Amino acid sequence: MHSEDIDKEQKKKSFPNFQSTESDVKEDAHTENLMTNLSNAYASDLLPNKDGKDLTKSFLLQVVNILLHYIKKSFDVKSKILDFHHPHQLLQGLEGFNLELSDHPESLEQLLVDCTDTLKYSVKTGHPRYFNQLSSGLDIIGLAGEWLTAAANTNMFTYEIAPVFTIMEKILLKKMHEIIGWGEIEADGIFSPGGSISNLYGILVARYKQYPEVKIKGMTALPCIALFVSEQGHYSVKKAAALLGIGTDNVIEVKCDERGKMMPDELEKNILQAKRKGQTPFCVSATAGSTVFGAFDPLQDIADICKKHKLWMHVDAAWGGGLLLSREHSYKLNGIERANSVTWNPHKLMGVPLQCSAILIRERGLLEACNQMQAGYLFQPDKLYNVDFDTGDKAIQCGRHVDIFKLWLMWKAKGTCGFEVQINRYMELANYLYKILKKKDNFKLVLDSEPELTNVCFWYFPSRLKHLPKGCERDQELHKIAPKIKAQMTEEGTAMISYQPCGDNVNFFRMVFSNPATRQTDIDYLIDEIERLGKDL
Ligand code: ABU
C-alpha cells in the first residue's frame, strides 16, 4: 500500500470511533457507504456548481448523520463525556486527524472524516453528567435554530438584510423588558456576544448618561470616575473598566456577607469613602446570581442607595436572570425593575445554545446616542423603510451575529411555562444534592444555607483528612483534592465538574444545574464517582 493509501485507511478508520452498539455499527456502515461516493468529489462540486444539487444533498445528509450520531452519544450516560488529549497531542495529530491546513483541496469524504473527528475529540456539553459550566445542555430546537441561522448567514446591523431577525429581536427584548417589570416603559436593548460584553455595554451607557461629552472628548474631560461591584461579582466588570479607560483601581469591590451577597452598608461606606478620596462614583453593578455561589445581591437596598447618591444601577443577571421565569423563585430578583440596565444570558439557565446574551437598558435612545457613528454606507437615512428598525448603530461592533432566532424558536417550542418548568427542575436538583451532601460526613458544604440558585459548592474529604483538625496544614492538603479528582475524572471521561478556591476557602467543587438531560441518578453517580476517585488520595 502507498503511504497515501495507508493514510486514507487510517483516516477512514477514525470514522466509527464512537461505536458501541449493533445499531451504531449499522449506522456507521451506512454512513461509510455513502461516504465512498464522496471520495472523488470536492467542495467545488457542490452548489452553486450547476450539477451540484444531488451531491450537495448527499453531503449535507451525511453531515446530519454525523451530527445525529453525536447527539445520540451526547445523551447516552454510558458514553464518555470526552476523549481527553493534551494540547501537544492534538497539535501533533491523532489517528489521521490532522489539524494542519493544506494548500490543496481535500475531498468531501475527508471533510466528513474531519467533521466526525472534530466531534470525537470535543466535549459533549449536552451529556447528562456535564456540570462544568453555567451554560450546558443540548436543546434540539435551539440546534435547529442555529442551523437555520447559519443557512441565512446574515448580519443583524440592518433591517434591510435581516428583516425577520431584527423584528424578532425587538419582540424578544420587549418580552424580557416585561418580565423584568419594565412593561410600561419604552425600554431598549440589544443582543451581544456574551455576558462580559453585555456588562461592558451597561457600564459604557452608564458613563455616557452621566458624561455624554466622553464620546467626543474622551476620559480627560471627566473627573476620576468610580464604580462598585461586590467581591463576588464577575471579573468582566473590571475588564470593562480597563477597556473603557476607567481603570481597575477605580472599581471598588464591596464586601459580601457569609452567603456571598453584597452588603448594602458596606456599599454606602465605600461610596462615601471614594468621594472623600476624590473619586466620583457613577455606577453600581449588582449581581443577580454570582458565578461561584449563585448569590443574589439585595437589589432593593442597592436601588435605594443608587437613588440616594444618583448612581446608575446595573444588574448583572447573566446567570440568575432565568429565574425571573419561575413564579416560585423570581422573588430573589425583587428590585431588578428599579435597575437602569440588566445583563441576562439566555444561553445559561434557559439552555439556549451559545451564544445568546442580552443587555437591556431602561431608557430608550441612550444606546444609540452613545454608540452611533452614522456610517453612510450602512445607515442611509433615506431607505425605503422606517430606519428606526436598523439596530446597527446601537452596537459597539459592526457585524453582529444573529443570536436571536434560536431563542425565538425555543420560546415558541416551550412557551414561557416550559422554561419555568425546566428552571424549577434545576432548582429541585440543586436541593436534592444539597440535602444529600448535608447528611454525608465525608463531604462539607461551603455555604450552610439552602441553594438560592442551582450552585452547590462543597469539599470532599478523603478519610485521611476527615479527622485532621481545621487549620493551615489540613487546608494545604484539602486544596489538592478537587484538582486531583477532576483530573482523573477528565482522563476517564466519566463526568465534568468545576472547582476553584474563593477568598479564604481552598479549592472546592462547584456543582451547577442548567442541563435538561441531568437526572437525580446522575447526581448519585457524581457523588459515588468523587468518592471512588478520592477515597485514597
Ligand atoms: N461567567 C461566565 C461563565 C462561567 C462558568 O461557566 O463557570
Describe this protein's structure.
The chain is of the alpha/beta class. The protein is 43% helix and 11% strand. It has 17 helices and twelve strands. The strands form two sheets. A seven-stranded mixed beta sheet has the order 2-8-7-6-5-3-4, with helices on both faces. Helix 3 (53-74) runs parallel beside helix 5, helix 6 runs antiparallel to helix 14 (404-439) and helix 7 packs parallel to helix 14 (404-439). Mean pLDDT is 94; it is low at 1-19.
Low-confidence stretches: 1-19
Query: Which kinds of small molecule does this entry bind, naming each only once?
Result: gamma-amino-butanoic acid
Instruction: Note the overall shape.
Output: globular
**Structural class assignment:** alpha/beta
* Order of secondary-structure elements: HHHHHEHHEHHEHEHEHEEEHHEEHHEEH
Alpha carbon gyration radius = 26 Å
The count of helical stretches stands at: 17
Question: How is this structure best summarized?
Answer:
The protein has 537 residues and is α/β, with parallel strands linked by helices. The chain has helices at 3-13, 22-36, 53-74, 87-92, 108-120, 140-152, 163-180, 195-210, 214-217, 236-243, 264-276, 299-309, 366-371, 404-439, 463-466, 472-492, 520-534, and strands spanning 130-131, 188-192, 225-230, 251-254, 280-287, 312-316, 341-344, 357-361, 443-445, 456-460, 496-502, 505-511. Helix 10 (236-243) links the parallel strand 3 (225-230) and strand 4 (251-254).
